[in-house]
Write a structure and sequence with these properties.
The chain is 41% helix and 16% strand. It has eleven helices and 16 strands. Helix 6 links the parallel strand 4 and strand 5. Bound molecules: 5-S-methyl-1-O-phosphono-5-thio-D-ribulose.
């Protein structure tokens, strides 16, 4: 089944993005023509979801140097300025920094090339990050589909679908692969306050794919689990520490605790680019806090008194003890996660050289 939308696309002289802030009311694409526009699009979540942010970062860098002066050190100066602008947009999804580092490694190992050649190389790499991501998601789906049984009802939180990646999705990729194998499954989508990625994006995406979905307020998950109406939980991740602790959209930790109490398997699905082996545990993961208006308002409508004190923590960390398995493009990692990850990184290096 082909994707019913294109999350992000390189168009030669600009980048085309499906503006996720407008979904599901309007399906509008925006044209990004400079790095500042890309930084703004990432910050306001027009493009969002860890792997999609990685693709946006790589493309934003390529776009940012495209019109730089054709001489060293001007190109070099511009390249590093663009990299730091992109790196300062959002702190939690490690895919963003993974993409920046990948572009830096390419730039630094090809300094001998002419500026024209170097620019072309950066553009080709950004396009490659996008095409690779789609393939990785399909492989995550392939490995994860076995975890889903015929007849399962699967709960997911936030949006880890095609819109959070270059296509197909991570958590939704697992669900989609099981569905495409003919398993009769249905999905419970948490609305995911405050920005409602579950209500606005996940339910929209699943309906487009014809996968049965029921939307619930976040505080309904426990009641459904208590009634035996949820068999599995699959979520995405923004950054996973080397011990398997996983940061994902705020509310994920609560779902994991509920799953543990109700003995429901809880899985995380993410590519290796989401795993940060430099971090010993989830306590080291930088957690984004966003502005209070996202909590006091729904869209343009105020729902809380003016002046009320607000906390808007965008992500939480689920400890590895609550996770039954982490589905990657190289297989399903299990405890001890560090060992599984080492094995997968080695395999990836042997087979792809990356
Ligand atoms: O703030 P967002 O919408 O970028 O947060 C997205 C999530 O938390 C996703 O679950 C995560 O990035 C995984 S995407 C495959």
């Amino acid at each position: 089944m082909s994707d019913p939308f294109r999350t992000i696309e390189w168009k030669g002289d600009h980048i085309r993005l499906l503006d996720q802030t407008l979904l599901p009311l309007r399906e509008e694409y925006i044209e990004i023509r400079c790095v500042d526009e890309m930084c703004e699009a990432i910050k306001r979540l027009s493009v969002r979801g860890a792997p999609a942010i990685g693709v946006a970062a790589a493309m934003g860098i390529a776009l940012g140097v495209m019109h730089a002066e054709e001489c060293e050190p001007e190109l070099s100066k511009r390249f590093y300025e663009v990299c730091s602008a992109i790196a300062s947009t959002r702190p939690t999804a490690v895919n963003l920094f993974w993409a920046v580092n990948r572009m830096k490694a390419l730039f630094e190992s090809n300094r001998n090339l002419s500026p024209t050649m170097l620019k072309k190389l950066l553009i080709d790499e950004a396009i490659l990050v996008e095409t690779e991501d789609r393939r990785l998601c399909e492989r995550i789906g392939f490995h994860g589909a076995d975890l889903i049984n015929d007849g399962d009802t699967v709960l997911t939180h936030c949006n880890a679908g095609g819109l959070a990646t270059a296509g197909y999705g991570t958590a939704l990729g697992v669900i989609r692969a099981a569905f495409e194998q003919g398993k009769k499954i249905s999905v419970i989508a948490d609305e995911t306050r405050p920005l409602n990625q579950g209500a606005r994006i996940t339910s929209w995406e699943l309906m487009k794919l014809g996968i049965p979905v029921t939307l619930i307020p976040d505080n309904t998950a426990g009641a459904l689990m208590q009634r035996g109406l949820i068999n599995k939980v699959v979520v995405g991740a923004d950054r996973i520490a080397s011990n398997g602790d996983a940061a994902n959209k705020i509310g994920t930790y609560s779902v994991a605790v509920l799953s543990k109490f109700h003995k429901i398997p809880f899985y995380v699905a993410a590519p290796l680019s989401t795993i940060d082996m430099t971090l010993k545990s989830g306590t080291e993961i930088p957690i984004e806090e966003r502005n209070s208006e996202e909590v006091t308002h729904i869209g343009a409508c105020r729902i809380a008194p003016e002046g009320v004190k607000v906390r808007n923590i965008a992500f939480d960390v689920t400890p590895h003890e609550l996770i039954h398995g982490i589905v990657t493009e190289w297989g399903v990692a299990i405890e001890p996660y560090g060992q599984s990850f080492d094995k997968f990184f080695l395999k990836a290096k042997e087979e792809t050289g990356l």
